[in-house]
Amino acid sequence: MNQQLPDVLVLCGGQGTRLSSVLPNTPKIMAPINNHIFIDYLFKHLQKQNAKRLILCVGHLRDQIYTHIKNNPQPNFEILFSEETAPLGTGGAIKNALKHITTKSLIVINGDSFINISLQNFLAFHNTHNADISIALNYLPDISRYGAVTINNNNQIIRFKEKSTTPQKGLMNAGVYILNSSLLSKYKAPFSIEKDIFTQTTNYNIYGYVSKNTQFIDIGTPESLLEAQNFFGKL
Fold it and tell me: What is the domain range of residue 205?
């Protein structure tokens, strides 16, 4: 039987500017996909992984998220909300939510992407490596629009490479993390966890978790949102 996961924090307070042409007044996490809402696919996956306690970091157009959850109760979870009244960056949003965290480590999920990894195996990997931060990585034949992540033979992350205009294969950040919440105490919002913390590979033990046979999608652009219709239809 799966063990209960640490608290899970979902980042869903972004402005969604790249999707404004197709979803001008809808948070990304509320995007309609195949007669469902994107957040419901996340809930279904987290239920299978035995998550029990979710903290949703909400900001832009958050009332739509409140209404959806009120009208579609999730009895398998305790759901709390951490509100951003001004943009805090990904790191600032996480730090703002720490008052709700009850576990030593926490799982962080980007609210505009999905990867069907086993969070149980991911947590075991994090604990085995005694990591400060673990990042789920995904292999793609073209990672140019995401940027590349380089790991050594021990799966320790040694380099992040910016987005490129040249197609290239490799590993990319899949938007799911496990971290020790105490790491954020010295940072002041607004700040980016990706740019201000993850890049400090010499200061923290940061490991990349690579799982085989996973499927990944992000819904951050009109094109990828369209692709998500087919993606979730096959899961």
Answer: 8-234
